[in-house]
Amino acid sequence: MLFEVWAPQAGDRVELQLHGGSHPLERDPQRHGWWVAQVEAGDGARYGYALDGGPVLPDPRSRRQPDGPDGLSALVDHTTYAWRHEPPARGLRGAVLYEMHVGTYTPEGTLDAAAGRLDHLVDLGVTHVELMPLCPFPGRHGWGYEGVSLWAVHEPYGGPQALKRFVDAAHGLGLGVVLDVVHNHLGPSGNYLPAFGPYFTDTHHTPWGAAVNLDAPGSDEVRAYLLGSALSWLRDYRIDGLRLDAVHALADTRALTFLEELTAAVDELAAEQGRELFLIAESDLADPRTTTPRAEGGLGLHAQWNDDFHHALHTALTGESQGYYGDFARAPLAALAKTLGHVFFHDGTYSTFRDRTHGRPVDRVRTPAHRFLGYTQTHDQVGNRATGDRLSASCSPGLLACAAALALTGPFTPMLFMGEEWGASTPWQFFTDHTDPELAEAVRSGRRREFAEHGWAEEDVPDPQDPATRDRSCLDWAEREREPHARLLAWYRELIALRASQPDLADPDLAAVRVAFDEEARWLAYRRGDLRVAVNFAKEPVRIPLGSRGRVLASWEAVEMPNGDGLMTLPPESCVVLADA
């Protein structure tokens, strides 16, 4: 077995600790900073590296951390798993994604338990499950965005074999699997990378401290480390796509950026394996170059989240105007109409939240709509609220139905956040399980201080370290059978089935979307091919000019086609989908 580690920080000695013994590594004359040794070992063997007589540390490229981020690494032989199912031939066009946090999707909080609930997603009609980060992090429960060991799977979730069983089960049901990966920072706890090499740089600073080194000395190997991790998820675990966290925080001044390298490598792997693989970016830059193909001068990512659509919809539903919602809340229906037809609300316009102009227009003629994800809620937009309250805590079932109609019949690739399909009453709160008492207290006090500045009493902000915070965030599956949850779930199923059966709802032509609205009366309608969709956010009935011809495909409340005047009366907080006659 070849053991190799990049450790340019080491002076004159690197030792492999394996089977209770020490084995010296030698410098690789062909690769600067690399140390190698040939030692017999098999699947599951525990090991670590000691640099210059220091403590034994986990392997930066560890495939498994059985005892958590601070423990020894373990070898993983990926050839031992017998795959039962081939990945489905599913790309992003026509997809409906479902964002899932393994630790709260079920009370058990494991990949095997989550796999046992995949039949719900099949019945719902979604095509892909998007897993929040799975890399090891301190303790048992957490969001996963403070992970380390970017090649490994959190052991309390079940470890590497459990992820393979999950992906295999999903593929057997025809579901694709997307994994959320974090390249812009690593958790402070259990992060031993700086002992090995210049994985971080003070050349740039981020909200998490020193930036991941993508462009300073030593960055070639750091980029290779991240690329190798990304490709491992796609190759070794048969993941179908990756969601890249906060790519705007990837400080990178090199002519060939890391994101371009990554997209090229993923496209090459897709061609090699003969299946569609894709990358979805989270970015707040409102820059269409993120998803513009590399051949046309873009970064080449295959899709990105569209927070502008979410913010406009959220303000229309709730009337909230704090923080970044302020730009959208001044005329929420106008903002919503703009995002439906033009993707970005800020496309070179002034942002009061940023106190500067922001964004760049999307080429509506050349850019397919499915490159952008549209959603009513996400882990960020729920969990980063003081009490983790979902839309269901403040919106009527009718308004939730309107939101679903806009996301599921709109031009973007829809994404649901787990539980929204039945209007889950359970919150989704920020929770951690830090084993370092000082870090735990820093997170607890920092969160309370942050929300105190916005008027929240400290005692009203949940303690992230309290196990009850995680427990409150677990889905209550029994709700699906009770009203009003059962009716909303049936509505989601109906809309997703409609999206799958109506070609106009998969039309990628942004320029063909036609939107009308009345800000004061609080209604909005749009046309997609031969289909018309109308929503009424008001508490009173409204009359909307939808034409006298057509038939109702789906409606939240009973409606009748208009007479000769072409005006349809839409009940309060309701929505309808019509087809031309």
TrEMBL record:
The organism's place on the tree of life at top rank: Bacteria
Principal location class: cytoplasm
Reaction(s) catalysed (UniProt annotation): hydrolysis of (1->4)-alpha-D-glucosidic linkage in 4-alpha-D-[(1->4)-alpha-D-glucanosyl]n trehalose to yield trehalose and (1->4)-alpha-D-glucan
Keyword list, A-Z: Carbohydrate metabolism, Cytoplasm, Glycosidase, Hydrolase
Metabolic or biological pathway: Glycan biosynthesis; trehalose biosynthesis
Any one GO MF annotation of this record: 4-alpha-D-(1->4)-alpha-D-glucanotrehalose trehalohydrolase activity
Enzyme Commission number: 3.2.1.141
Residues annotated for substrate binding in this entry: 243-248, 307-311, 379-384
Gene Ontology biological-process entries: trehalose biosynthetic process
Cellular localization per UniProt: Cytoplasm
Example of a GO cellular component annotation carried by this entry: cytoplasm
Catalytic residues of the enzyme: 245 (nucleophile), 282 (proton donor)
Site location (Transition state stabilizer): 380
Domain Glycosyl hydrolase family 13 catalytic residue range list: 94-447
Region annotation (Disordered) ranges: 50-71
Database matches in InterPro entries: DUF3459, GH, GH13_cat_dom, Ig-like_fold, Ig_E-set, Trehalose_TreZ, Trehalose_TreZ_E-set_sf
Similarity field: Belongs to the glycosyl hydrolase 13 family.
Name by which UniProt lists this protein: Malto-oligosyltrehalose trehalohydrolase
Species, as recorded: Streptomyces ficellus
